[in-house]
Amino acid sequence: MNKITLKPGKEQSVNRFHPWIFSGAIRAGEGRFEDGDPVEVYSSSGRLLGTGHYHSGSIAVRLISTAGDKPGRRLWSERLERALLLRKECGLAGSDHTNAFRLVNAEGDGMPGMIIDFYNGTAVMQAHTAGMHRVREQVAAELCNVMGGSLRAVYYRGPKGLAKQAGDPGAPLQSSAITDTSASPSAVKGGREAAGTVDGKKITGYLIGNRGDNTVTEYGNLFAVDWERGQKTGFFLDQRENRRLLGYYSGGKTVLNMFGYTGGFSVYALRGGASEAVTVDSSAGAVEMAEHNMRLNFEKDKRHSAVCADVFDYFRGNNKKYDLVILDPPAFAKGLRAVRNALQAYKRVNTKALEKVGYGGKLFTFSCSQVISKEQFRQAVYSAAINSGREVRILHQLAQPADHPVSIYHPEGEYLKGLVLQVF
Length: 424
Prior knowledge:
alpha/beta; Archaeosine Trna-guanine Transglycosylase, Chain: A, domain 4; Transcription Regulator spoIIAA; Rossmann fold; 3 domains; 5-stranded mixed beta sheet; 11 helices
């Protein structure tokens, strides 16, 4: 295995079990490595610190083990078994009411760079590093061994970078993009991340089995999931418990679901007894899927309407106030350089949303930007509340659910932040 030695004193983060090693920490003159190469990492004194995958970027190594375990099928099997046990303990794996959940959450499950979501018998894998891309078939094989008969197919979505290099633009289903010129230029929940080929090899497709039933159940609600063209792995599983919370508040209420994507919050609102639910998204494909999900659950229920529109255009053109407003925008900041613009975007869009909440109503507002901290998001919403001139109080502080665990040593994994506000 390739060996990397750190500069003196640069092993401190590893001693604190943080799984990332930055390029500036590596001693000059180290050998040349290919993206995805397995490596052993040593301190300047020659002590083995851990093993991981190399990548030629700012984050040079993502550690998989600090015990010296070598990446391989035995290690993947152990990590997958541990991950599955947690989902069983959470009441998800093997549940009668829910058959869609996150099985592997990257660093949170000891597999940096790998996401695996389970949809009613199909596991959708998405690698975010070349190292995990290389071992995709090993992971898929061990996944079948661990899950047994509950797994019928494994679908793999290749890393964005490899697809881009292959020159295949793809056309995945996109959610709302803010086109307001004062918003962040990176404020797009969509993006191109479809399949391509590298060296003549397809990097996206079924590793095991074939396409099966794409309808999943979540707390008794039905959703169609497009894991081949949809965003991420096809559905935002991280909002499951927050959707359920919204349902509790929805009885007899009017609901506005902004950046509604495929209508998840709207389905829960109607299930909870809402008198009206409006789903707004800038993507015609997302709006069509939202309407399809409504038909799955409520056939021709007249309480729901879907609008294909830019959110700021909708805010400007609609004077109606709603009892409940959901604001689940795109990740305004993809990197640290975009944080300032992103915070301004959060401030502006929350100001507009607060103006749409009726007296005594509630705003469910979220940020899924990893580089935006809870404190920064809360400050942006605080500024929006001041701008709105409304009396606002916090009822709930929301986060990602237990099937999206966060390593205490890797706070960067805590990406989803949410607040439920009551507005007077």
